[in-house]
Design a protein that fits this description.
Elements lengths: L5 H15 L7 H11 L4 E5 L6 H13 L2 E6 L2 H10 L8 E4 L2 H6 L7 E5 L5 H11 L6 E5 L14 E3 L5 E6 L8 E13 L6 E14 L3
Parallel strand pairs: 1-2, 1-4, 2-3, 4-5
Antiparallel strand pairs: 5-7, 6-7, 7-8, 8-9
Helix pairs in contact: 1-2, 1-3, 2-3
């Protein structure tokens, strides 16, 4: 991924809102869309626990801005067909594949620069770690959603926990370290600013120098 693009992030955010038909009520999906588009992700892979929904639409919105592609890994043909149907007219914007998530992340989709994992999926922790190992080393992002009350169980992954929606885990691969076993933990603080005129909340991240940490699969 190249440098952060605020214009891509803004456009993807607004497009995700439009696709989800939520008007001015943003959700975690819009944050994910802006994060992927802002980082100019080219290969985005999502591993969900069920039928594809708003977060997959969010990545489709991001891909529209970056010119990238979105792959949704399903556990079976029934789920794949249901997911395509659930996305409606946007179903053609996503590639649906059926297979073992870990194997695909380490094989056909090794090198993805944005991997989204539903923490409700079976063996979510192992899949999250497989995403680290198979992700593109050039500052790839691995994001977990639906973390909920399980955040404490994921601390050893050294990912940043964000209290957005049902909880997000965000980790970035360190581009300066050879191999796929090390990720970056950035010490950061999040600032929420409320627009006094519209009541809209704007979230900003202030990041300090990072340190390298090692994860093992």
């Amino acid at each position: 991924m190249s440098n952060w693009s605020p214009e891509n992030a803004k456009r993807a955010y607004l497009q995700a809102l439009k696709m989800a038909k939520r008007g001015k009520e943003p959700d975690v999906a819009e944050f994910i869309s802006a994060l992927a588009a802002g980082n100019n992700a080219q290969l985005m892979v999502v591993a969900g626990a069920g039928v594809a929904g708003s977060v997959t639409l969010a990545l489709a919105a991001a891909a529209h801005q970056t010119g990238g592609r979105v792959v949704c890994i399903c556990c079976g043909q029934i789920e794949s067909h249901a997911s395509r149907k659930a996305l409606g007219v946007y179903g053609d914007c996503v590639e649906f594949v059926v297979g073992d998530v870990k194997s695909l992340l380490l094989g056909d989709y090794k090198g993805a620069d944005f991997v989204l994992v539903d923490c409700d999926i079976t063996n979510a922790r192992e899949i999250f770690l497989a995403a680290f190992k198979g992700a593109n080393n050039d500052e790839a992002l691995v994001v977990g959603y639906n973390v909920k009350h399980r955040a404490s169980r994921w601390r050893q992954l050294r990912a940043s926990f964000l209290p957005i929606g049902e909880g997000l885990l965000v980790a970035k691969i360190d581009p300066n370290v050879k191999g796929n076993d090390k990720v970056v933990q950035r010490r950061s603080r999040w600032i929420v600013q409320v627009d006094n005129c519209t009541g809209e909340e704007h979230i900003f991240r202030v990041t300090s120098p990072h340190r390298k940490v090692q994860t093992e699969v």
